[in-house]
Design goal:
By secondary structure, the protein is α/β, with parallel strands linked by helices. The chain is built from 12 helices and 13 strands.
Amino acid sequence: MSLFNKYKGSTVLVTGGAGCVGSNLTRKLAELDTDKVIILDDLSSAYDWNIPRGDNIEFIHGDILDDEVLKRVFKEKPDYVFHLAAHFANQNSVDNPKKDLMVNGVGILKVLQYTQLTGVERFVYSSSGCGVYGLDSKMPFEEHDISISLHTPYQVTKLLGELYTNYFHNLYELPIVNARFFNVFGPGEVPGKYRNVIPNFFYWSMTSQPLPITGDGSETRDWTYVEDIVDGLLAMGIKDKAIGEAINLGSGKDHQVKYMAQLVNELTGNSEGIAYMPRRDWDAKTKLLSSIKKAKKILGYKPKIKFEDGLKKTHQWFLDNWDNIEECAEFE
């Protein structure tokens, strides 16, 4: 814990702090004796019952596109900004490309402008390792090998966010770090139409439905448990060598989708099995795997949670919060 002592007594802004990564990050920051953790979230893809509570946690219900809201939160003069708010994710961006551009493009530009005017010790941006690397990038994906041949608006705007943070770093010397997440999962993500596969699979499995795999199931993903992501983010906020860098946060291991589905069904006791469906038009990447060499070198990053253990922890969260999850899950 001594590694993160720099956060003690600080004020931290977490945009999108009611979501999966944001809520877990906020709880960890609150435990580090921060003076205040400010959550800014419009609850468009998160829920009030999942917002962390505590004497040093303040929740502000608002939109990152709203200047009055941004003036309010930056009046607190945050020492650190973790920008997690986003229009998520691939299918949602295909269906709603204009909104995706507004939130992920104009949204980060606005937050960066207020950050630059206020002066902060660090601005950490949640980019997407699943987004900025393309079919022409070699696996395991290394930070230098990004692509401009992308397949969804979400991928485009996540890369755009990195370009904006780099611009503010280069022109204004803003101390930024770009965190490239790989397939985050864990407690805090409510299933729904545009959510990730693991929470959706748990929901369908716990309601005795077959798990729909788009493809043949041999596709692989670099699923990374949220606690490991949080540790990486916290290190990005305090390691000086991270400033100006893009750094992968993944597990460095890949697993087949059908293996994940089988484990989910086993954990929940679902006997309905798996249903195979055609792959989605935009889903061109059949395999994803991060290189975490840079994260290990600069951050001392070392994922601790095995994939199977992470699934067990996620299942327990579903059991503990089932009434709320069942009420809020929307697939239409």
